[in-house]
Amino acid sequence: xxxxxxxxxxxxxxxxxxxxxxxxxxxxxxxxxxxxxxxxxxxxxxxxxxxxxxxxxxxxxxxxxxxxxxxxxxxxxxxxxxxxxxxxxxxxxxxxxxxxxxxxxxxxxxxxxxxxxxxxxxxxxxxxxxxxxxxxxxxxxxxxxxxxxxxxxxxxxxxxxxxxxxxxxxxxxxxxxxxxxxxxxxxxxxxxxxxxxxxxxxxxxxxxxxxxxxxxxxxxxxxxxxxxxxxxxxxxxxxxxxxxxxxxxxxxxxxxxxxxxxxxxxxxxxxxxxxxxxxxxxxxxxxxxxxxxxxxxxxxxxxxxxxxxxxxxxxxxxxxxxxxxxxxxx
Length: 330
Prior knowledge:
- By secondary structure, the chain is α+β, with helices and mostly antiparallel strands.
- The protein folds into two domains: 28-232, no CATH class; 235-306, no CATH class.
- It has helices spanning 47-54, 85-90, 101-112, 173-181, 199-203, 214-230, 247-261, 265-277, 285-298, 308-327; strands at 3-5, 28-38, 57-59, 62-67, 70-75, 78-84, 120-131, 144-146, 151-155, 158-162, 166-172, 183-185, 188-195, 232-233, 235-237, 304-306.
- It has a ten-stranded antiparallel beta sheet with strand order 3-4-5-6-2-7-13-11-10-9. A two-stranded antiparallel ribbon has the order 1-12. The protein has a two-stranded antiparallel sheet with strand order 8-14.
- Strand 9 and strand 10 (158-162) form a beta hairpin.
- The longest helix has 20 residues, at 308-327.
- It starts with a strand and ends with a helix.
- One of its GO terms (biological process) is DNA replication.
- It comes from Polaribacter porphyrae.
């Protein structure tokens, strides 16, 4: 991955280098977090020191400010800190190894004079970083088509699958850091799993210090992996007619061509959603059955193969996931 700066004067915390080996400190990292510290944990704490340090301004619910990329709210209940621990500790063009997570939290806590290890976890993001073989723009939208129980949202730089409490996001990290930081990083693709609500429910983690236990980190990795593998990836037609063993398979081939003519998997599913929202189905099961029929059609080995770019991402994600588990074993 080649990294270069457009405006070096505005990027004092960034090393401008060209990588000739592993481009990241780690392919997986803990990124954005939301921590909460109740006032009962801050007996005799000098909150006026914090207000002065972060240059907080009064708001309707207390005091609010930005500090080194974090949003900090001082309210009647306590202190809430939200932001990227990775960007804070290693900058925007590198990743934070799990082995350095505790040091990063310790550093931020020392600056704020707060024991953040005891803070409650209310948001937790983990991401995987991949350097793609082909030009990055080819990977962002069409490769990821469906995730059961998640709403699919297309974005300018990728696609997001979302529920009220979780998000799985695929996006062009190269584009993001160029637009935000003026840094060129070739073919940097990011897959990000966000637990934006109910962290304890999904992970068992209650406090920041719980994440320092390797078994808990592995549980988070496994949760990320389980969501990634459930995402439907784009398939392409298998044009080898010799594999068709019956007229039914050929008829299914023609149906598949119809799906492709409509714009592919994601566009057909969108049309099904629109029909459902407009009350065109007399039975609620019709939407489920249509999606199931589409799944069966797209997953028939004689008809389709997974898009080669999706195969590449699957292979790399699996490799980095397996490596991360091994590297962090006690």
